[in-house]
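Blinded run. Sample ID left blank on purpose so nobody reads anything into the name before looking at the predicted structure. Input follows.
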Amino acid sequence: MRLWVKIVLLNNIIVITLGILIGLGIREGVTYSLRQEIIRQGELIAKNLSTLVADYILLNDHYKVEEAIKEILKAEADIEYIFVTDKDGLIFAHTFKDGYPPDILSWNPLDDKRMAAQLLETEKGYIRDIGIKVFEDMASEIHIGIREERIAISLKMLNCFLIIITLIMMAISSILSCLLSGIITKPLKRLVSFAHDLARGEFGKKVHFKTGDETGELAETFNYLSLELKRYREHMEESYRQMLRTEKLTALGRLSAGLAHELKNPLTSIRTLFQTFKNRPALITKDDVEMVISASDQMNDLLTKFLRFARSDEFNLTDVYINSIIKHVIKLVEFQLKDRSITLSLKLFRLPPVKADRAMIQQAILNLVLNAIEAMPQGGTLTISSRTEQGYAVVSISDTGTGIPEEIKDRIFDPFFTTKADGTGLGLSIVYNIINIHNGEINFLSNGTGTTFTMKIPVSL
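Blinded prediction complete.
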C-alpha cells in the first residue's frame, strides 16, 4: 500500500473517530438539555394547573377541575395524560379514556417530596411524568405525562446533521491529506529512485534537498553512502586489475617456454638457410625465399596472438564467440600439449554470441586449460566441450589427472590459496571473479580419475 494512501486512510480514520466521539458528546448534551427543558416545562404547567384547581379540589368540584385540565390539553400538544388526586390521595380527575391504570399511583410517588420527575417506558414511547403536591400537608397531587417524542425527532435531525458534517470533514480531510502526502512523499519518492540507482551500481550520484528536516538528513546520508560506495568500487576495481595483471604475468610466464620453442624452430631454419646464402649466394632459389617468408609469417602469427593476450586490460563488453576463444587458447598452449604428450579432445557445438569481455573470458579459459595441463605431468587427455543449456553458453574443461584432494575442495577459489611452490594462488580466484562479473556460474567435479571445471555464461545479459 502506498504511503499517501496510508496517510489519507489514517486521517479519515481520525476524522471519523473524532466525529463519532464529538457526536456522542453533543448527542448526550442535547438529550440532557431537552429533557431538562421538558422537566421545567412540565413543572411550570403542573404549578399553573395546581393554582387553578386547588380551591376546586377542596370544594370537591369535579367539573371545574376537568374544565381546567381540558384547557391545558388544548394549549400543550406534548401532554400524554393528566391525573389529579384528592386530599386523601385518591384519583380525583384524569384524562385516560378507557379508565386509569390500577397502578398509576406507583408510577411516580412523591412521598415527602414537593416535586418529582420520572421517565416512564410505555407502548407509546418514553414519557416524562412530572408530579407536584397541591397542598403541603395533604396527599393531593397533580401528575402530568409529557411525551419525549420531540427529543427523538431532534436527535434524529442531529444525527443526520452530524453525518453530513462528518462526510464534509472526510472530504476536506481527504483533499488536505492528498496535498500533505504529496508534500511528504515527493522527497521520499526521489530518495527511493536514488536508492534504485545505487542498487543498479550508479555510485557517485547525489540527490539534493533544501529542507532542513529529517528528509534532508537522510538525503545527506544517501549522498555520503553513494560517494563511499564509488570510492570502494574504484578501490576494488583497481585491486582487481592488479590481481588480473599479476595472474596474467604468471600465465605469460607459463606460456613463454612454449612461445620460445615455437619461435626457435623457424629461426633455426632461417639461420641455417642464411648461413648457406652467405657462403654460396648463387644457390638462392624461389623456394628458399618462400620458406623464409613462411617462417617469418609463422613467427609473426605467434607473436601477434601472444601480444593480443598480453595487452588486453580494459573491461569491454562485446559480442563474443566462445568457440573462437577456445581455439585461440589451444594455439597458445600447443607446445605444452606436445611437451607433455597430452591428447586434445574437442567437442564444440555451435554457440550463439554472448555479451562479455573477450580478454577476461580468454583469461578464464586459459587459466583452466593451463591448470588441467599441469595436472597431467605424465600425459593424459584434455577434453574441452561447449554447448548451450537453459539460456547459458556452457564450457567444460576436463583432465585425466589425479584430481583435487578432498580436504582443499572448499578452498580452491580462495585468493592466494595454492599448492604449487611457484604459484600465486590467484588463478582460480580470478576465474571465479570473471565468471561472477558476467553473471555466470562456475563449478567443478573431481575424483581420483580427473577433474572437470564447468563455466556458464548467460547468452543474454
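Unblinding after everyone has recorded impressions. Residues 67 and 347 are 126 Å apart (CA to CA).
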